[in-house]
Amino acid sequence: MDDDLLPIGRFARLGRLSVKQLRHYDALGLLVPAWVDPVTGYRFYRASQARVALAIGLLRSLDVPLSLVGRVLAGEWEVLAGVRDGLEAEVARRRRTLASLERVLVEGLPSAVVSVVSEPAWRVLVAREVAGGPEGVGRATSAAVARLVGVGGGGPVRLVGVFPVDMEEVMEVAVARVVEGEGWRDGVGVRAEVLEGGRFAAARHVGPYDQISLTVSAVLAWCGERGLAVSEVREVYVSDPAVTAAEALVTDVLVRLE
Question: 5-64: per-residue pLDDT in tens?
C-alpha cells in the first residue's frame, strides 16, 4: 500500500466531509477512493483528492444537485445557469408568499363578499398545461396565456383560468379565451371548445394575481359553511395587466356549485 494514502476518516477531515458522504459519493462515482483494501474493504484516498472533496462540498452548499456535480467537476460550467435560474424562481416565489402573508397580517384571514350568479356558456379557445403542484400553477397558467394571446383575431382578449378545487402534486390547469364570431379553429396547443355555464359562488379580487388564492380560499370557505358541493375554480381576468398596476388588477373568482 502506498504511504501517500490516507484512511477514510483522516481524508474526511481533510476534505471537510463525513465518512457517510464519502461512501455515498463513491457509490455515485463522484469521488472514488484511490485504493480499496480487497480484504477489509477499507477505503483509502490520496491527499491530492482533497481538492475534489472540497469542491463537492462547496457545490452542495450552493444547492447544486448531486446529479449535476459531476458535470461541473468535468468543466461543464454552463449547467450552473439552470441552478441559478431555479434559485431565482424560488426567491421570487418566496417573495410572493411573503407579500400574501403581509396582506393577511394587515387584513386578517381572507374574507370576501360572495354572491351566487348564473353564467352562460362561452365559446372559447382553450390551452392546457400540466402543473407540478400548487407552486407550478402560476408558471403553467402563464404558458397557457402566452399561447392564447398569440392566436389571431381582433377585439379585446378575454381570458378565464380554469383550475381544479383540489391542489395535487400533478394537475391540469387550463386557460380559455372567450371568442366571438365565426372562423375560430383548433391550433397548435389550442382547442376550440364550449366552456359550460352554470351556477357559481362569485367574489371580486383586487390585487396581484399571486394573491388570488386568498380570495379563492374565502369563497371556498363560504361554500363550505353552507354545505355546498363545489367542482371547479375559475378566474376571470377583468383587467389588462399590460396597463394596470398589480395592486389594481381586478379578477372575478367563480367557484362552480354542484
Answer: 999 999 999 999 999 999 999 999 999 999 999 999 999 999 999 999 999 999 999 999
> In angstroms, rounded to a whole number, what is the distance separating the alpha carbons of residues 15 and 52?
8
In one-letter notation, the amino acid at residue 112 is A
Is domain 115-257 annotated with CATH 3.20.80.10?
A: yes
| Segments of the chain assigned to CATH 3.20.80.10 | 115-257
Mean pLDDT of 222-246: 94
Residues in the chain: 258
Residues in CB range of 25: below 8 A, 6 or more apart? 17, 31, 56
C-alpha angle with apex 231: 96 to 147, nearest 5 degrees?
Answer: 55
5-75: in CATH 3.40.1000.10: no
Query: Given this model, what pLDDT does residue 163 score?
Result: 93
Give Rg (Cα) of the chain: 27
Q: What pLDDT, in 10s, does the model give residues 52-75?
A: 999 999 999 999 999 999 999 999
In sequence order, what are the beta bridge partners of 35? 44
Residue 183 grid cell = 372562423
